[in-house]
Amino acid sequence: MLQQLKSWRRRRVLRRHAIADPLWDELAAALPVLQGLDAGERERLRELTTLFLHDKEFYGARGFEVTPAMALHVAVQACLLILNLELDLYRDWSTVILYPDTFVAPREETDEAGLVHSSRHELAGESWDGGPVVLSWADAAPGASPHGPGTNVVIHEFAHKLDMRTGSANGLPPLHRGMAVEAWSEIFTAAFEQLLRQVGQGRETLVDPYAAEDPAEFFAVASEYFFEAPAVLRHEFPQVYRQLALYYRQDPALRAEPPEGAA
């Protein structure tokens, strides 16, 4: 009975809140990350995006006006991560907040002596455990890539949300049956330590060095590259790429390859 009610609600939302064709077509053309999706994937993504927009509320900070196109732009990328997963992975929170530009967030850290240190950080995005996703529109807008090719603040913050399904973000999201936690941990730890050494030695890296902050940031940055620059991630960290392909149940590198016979 419960499943029937959920199916009925889903059909009603999709019927009553369908995304207008012109708005959808404009968005699909503006986002390279959606290129290569087949017709079935595009339709599934459209349905997930419709349901996401119905379930979540978007607010503008500092008087910023969030337009339907802005909300759609964020929602479709959030749903790209769960294209072959479940919308329920985004349950237990309800709000997306957009700032016009970067925002300042206070931080408190306790050192080994028990002293509390306060600081303020300028951010382009933030995910709260059980709370909202906060984004700078200047960094999330179409064409924005403030930290170079392969970076995407929307994908980054929603990857954190998936990571948080096991509790606090630690770089280990809830894995599917058949995926080994030991293999994931070994592969991601080795890749993280490799990047940490490269950054520590002052070497130039193909992947955003912010990934070397901690394992949670490594997972989020790796997810950015998985979708935005899959060939780079597959070249630099092939085993990480394979684990993410298993987790997200997608292969963006394959989608990005030209069809056979193409010039």
TrEMBL record:
List the GO terms this entry assigns under cellular component, sorted alphabetically. Answer: cytosol
GO MF annotations in UniProt: aminopeptidase activity; metallopeptidase activity
Known Gene3D superfamilies for this protein?
A: Collagenase (Catalytic Domain), Glucose-regulated metallo-peptidase M90, N-terminal domain
Q: Which domain of life is it from?
A: Bacteria
> Which InterPro entries does this chain map to?
MetalloPept_cat_dom_sf, MtfA_fam, MtfA_N
What is the name attached to this protein's record? Zinc-dependent peptidase
Q: Which organism is it from?
A: Thiohalobacter thiocyanaticus
